[in-house]
Write a structure and sequence with these properties.
about 400 residues; alpha/beta; Rossmann fold; formyl-coa transferase, domain 3; 6-stranded parallel β-sheet; 3-stranded antiparallel β-sheet; 18 helices; elongated
C-alpha cells in the first residue's frame, strides 16, 4: 500500500512550495500534479465552506468527503484563510514570500484588486512563478466572463464534432477543458521553473480554458484551416481514417480500427475477404474515407456474425487494434489497468481506506508518492502557520476568534 505517513519525502519537486489559490477542477488538478511530483502545496480555502467541490455529491466517503474533491486534491495541505480581511491578505503575502509558485483561478483581475498583481508580487518575492487560470484569459472581449467547462466545450468547437452524426451536439463525459487546462498549466509552470534555474527570473503565466479547448481540437481544427470546410460529426468515427469506430458484434459493441492500408489488407485476408483490399473503392484509406458508409455497413454485417470477444481475439492474433468498450467497473478489473496499479487503496484514519485513481506520471527513477491524503478543510492551518510563519498558539487562537482563519 502506498506511503501515506504524511512526511516529506524526496521527489523531483522537493523543496518547491506552491501557494494554491484554486478551486473546483482545472487549478486543483494542476496543483495536484505538482504535489504528486513532490512540491509542498498549500491549498488556501475560505473558512467554513472551502473548495466548492467538497460539497459536490453524492457520492461521499463515510466520513463525508466528496468523491469529486478526492479526485484532484491529494498531496496538499489545507489552510483556511479569509481573504476578505486585511489580516488574511497580510498572512497570504507572508506565505507568498516563502513560495515559489502561485496558482490562482479567481475571476480575471481579482488578485490585482487585492494588491496581489504579478509586478507587485515580483517585488515581494523575486522569481515567483505566477499562474492564473481563467475561462477566457486576461485580454479580449470575454475576459470578464466566468469560466465553465461546459460552456467552453460548446464555444471551442468540441461539441460541434461530438455526438451521433444525425443527433445532438454532445459534450465529453468528463470536463476535458478543465482537465486539459490543468495539464497545460502544469507544463507551463515546469518550463518556468526550469528557466528560473538558469536566469533567476519569475514568469507570468496566463492560462485559459478556451485556449486549451481550441488547442485540443488539434487535427480537426487543422482540417478546417486547410480545407475551409466545416467539420462534421461522425459519432465514434474518425474524420480522416476509415474504419476507426465502434462496431456491433453479435452480442455487444466493440472498438475496431485499421489505421493504415497494410492493416486493412491483413484484416481482409484474415476474414476471407481479400477482394475488399483489391476493390478501388476500399483499397486505400483515402478511398475508404470517401466510401465511409459502404465500409461501415459491410463491416457491421460481418461483425454481427460472431461475438465481440472472438473478433478481438482475431485482431490480437493478426496485430490489428481493437478493444472492449468498458464501463468503469470493467476498467478497474482490466488486467492491464491492474498491472499498472491505476487504482490505489489508501489508508485513511476515519474510513479505513479510500480508493483513488493513481497518478499517470510514471517515473521509475523518482516514483510519485502520496504524502498527504486529500485534506479536511483547514486540516493543516495551525501546522503551516507555526512552521512557516512562526505563529504561536495564542496568535492562532486570536486569528480564529477574528474569523481570519
Amino acid at each position: 500500500m502506498p506511503n501515506t505517513n504524511q512526511t516529506q519525502t524526496n521527489g523531483l519537486l522537493a523543496g518547491i512550495r506552491v501557494i494554491d489559490l484554486t478551486r473546483v477542477l482545472a487549478g486543483p488538478y494542476c496543483t495536484m500534479m505538482l504535489g504528486d511530483l513532490g512540491a509542498d502545496v498549500i491549498k488556501i480555502e475560505a473558512p467554513e465552506r472551502g473548495d466548492d467541490t467538497r460539497h459536490w455529491g453524492p457520492p461521499f466517503t463515510p466520513s463525508g468527503q466528496s468523491a469529486y474533491f478526492l479526485s484532484a486534491n491529494r498531496n496538499k495541505r489545507s489552510l483556511t484563510l479569509n481573504l476578505k480581511t486585511e489580516k488574511g491578505i497580510t498572512i497570504l503575502k507572508e506565505l507568498i514570500k516563502q513560495g515559489d509558485i502561485l496558482v490562482e483561478n479567481f475571476r480575471t483581475g481579482t488578485l490585482a484588486r487585492w494588491g496581489l498583481d504579478y509586478d507587485t508580487l515580483q517585488e515581494l518575492r523575486p522569481g515567483l512563478i505566477y499562474c492564473t487560470i481563467t475561462g477566457y484569459g486576461y485580454n479580449g472581449p470575454y475576459s470578464h466572463k466566468p469560466g465553465y467547462d461546459f460552456m467552453v466545450q460548446a464555444m471551442g468547437g468540441f461539441m460541434s464534432v461530438t455526438g451521433p452524426a444525425d443527433g445532438e451536439p454532445t459534450r465529453a463525459g468528463v470536463a476535458i477543458a478543465d482537465l486539459a487546462t490543468g495539464i497545460f498549466a502544469c507544463n507551463a509552470i515546469l518550463a518556468a521553473l526550469f528557466a528560473r534555474e538558469r536566469t533567476g527570473q519569475g514568469q507570468r503565466i496566463d492560462m485559459a480554458l478556451l485556449d486549451s479547448q481550441v488547442a485540443l481540437m488539434s487535427y480537426v481544427a487543422s482540417n478546417y484551416l486547410v480545407s475551409g470546410k466545416r467539420p462534421k460529426r461522425y459519432g465514434n468515427g474518425h474524420p480522416n481514417i476509415v474504419p476507426y469506430q465502434e462496431f456491433q458484434a453479435s452480442d455487444q459493441y466493440f472498438a475496431f480500427a485499421a489505421g493504415n492500408d497494410g492493416q486493412w489488407r491483413k484484416f481482409c485476408e484474415a476474414v476471407n475477404h481479400p477482394e475488399w483490399a483489391e476493390d478501388p473503392r476500399y483499397a486505400t484509406n483515402e478511398a475508404r474515407v470517401r466510401h465511409r458508409q459502404e465500409v461501415v455497413t459491410m463491416l457491421n454485417q460481418l461483425f454481427r456474425t460472431r461475438p465481440a470477444a472472438e473478433w478481438m481475439k482475431l485482431c490480437d492474433e493478426i496485430g490489428i487494434p481493437s478493444a472492449p468498450i468498458n464501463t468503469m467497473d470493467k476498467v478497474f478489473n482490466d488486467p492491464q489497468v491492474q498491472a499498472r496499479q491505476l487504482k490505489l487503496e489508501i489508508s485513511h484514519p476515519e474510513n479505513g481506506t479510500i480508493p483513488l485513481v493513481a497518478s499517470p506520471l510514471r517515473i521509475p527513477t523518482s516514483p510519485v508518492q502520496i504524502r498527504y491524503l486529500p485534506p479536511k478543510l483547514g486540516e493543516h492551518t495551525e501546522e503551516i502557520l507555526q512552521e512557516l510563519l512562526q505563529y504561536d498558539i495564542s496568535q492562532i487562537t486570536t486569528l480564529r476568534q477574528e474569523n481570519v482563519i
